[in-house]
Amino acid sequence: MNWIALTNINQIKEIKDSLDNTFSAIFKHSTRCGISRMVLKNFENEFDIPASEVTMYYLDLLNFRDLSNAIATDFNVMHQSPQLVLIKSGKVIYNASHGDISVDSLKNQLSK
C-alpha cells in the first residue's frame, strides 16, 4: 500500500484546493487504539485499488492531532477514529468510521 503520510497543514490545504476532479482519501488512525489498528490492518490487507484511481493519505492522530482538527473544520466532518474521508475536487463526498470502513465501500464510492 502506498500511503502518503499527512504531516503538514499545507498538505490538507492542497487537498482542499484541488479542483482537478481526482480522488484523495485520508485514513485517520489512532496508534493506541486496538479497534483502529484492526480496521487499518483489514483495510490494508484488502486494498487492491490502483494508485491512479485514488491518492491515499495516512494520518497518525496522536502525533498530528492539529491536522485531524483541521480536517474536521476544513471539510466539515465530525472527528472519528478510525475514520476514512474521501475527497473529490476539494469536497468530502464520503466518510466512514470504525466497522463501516472497507475497501469495498471505497470502491463503490470511486465508481459513482
Structure write-up:
There is one protein chain. The chain is an alpha/beta fold. It has a single domain, classed as Glutaredoxin, CATH 3.40.30. It is built from four helices and five strands; from the N terminus they run βαβαβαββα. It has helices spanning about 10-15, 35-45, 65-75, 105-110; strands at about 5, 25-30, 55-60, 85-90, 90-95. The chain has a five-stranded mixed sheet with strand order 1-3-2-4-5, sandwiched between helices. Helix 2 links the parallel strand 2 (about 25-30) and strand 3. The longest helix has 13 residues, at about 35-45. The chain is globular. The model has no long low-confidence stretch (mean pLDDT about 95).
Percent of sequence in beta strands:
25-35%
Low-pLDDT residue intervals, each spanning 5 or more residues: none
Largest sheet: 5 strands, mixed
CATH class descriptor: Alpha Beta
SSE string? EHEHEHEEH
**CATH architecture label name:** 3-Layer(aba) Sandwich
Count of DSSP strands: 5
Give the domain tally.
1
- The span between the termini is 23 Å
Mean pLDDT equals 95
Chain oligomer state: single chain
Roughly how many Å is the radius of gyration?
13 Å
Which fold name corresponds to the CATH topology? Glutaredoxin
The share of residues in helices is 25-40%
Strand numbers in spatial order across the main sheet: 1-3-2-4-5
Name the overall outline.
globular
Class by helix and strand content? Answer: alpha/beta
Task: Please name the fourth-level CATH homologous superfamily.
Answer: Glutaredoxin
Number of helices: 4
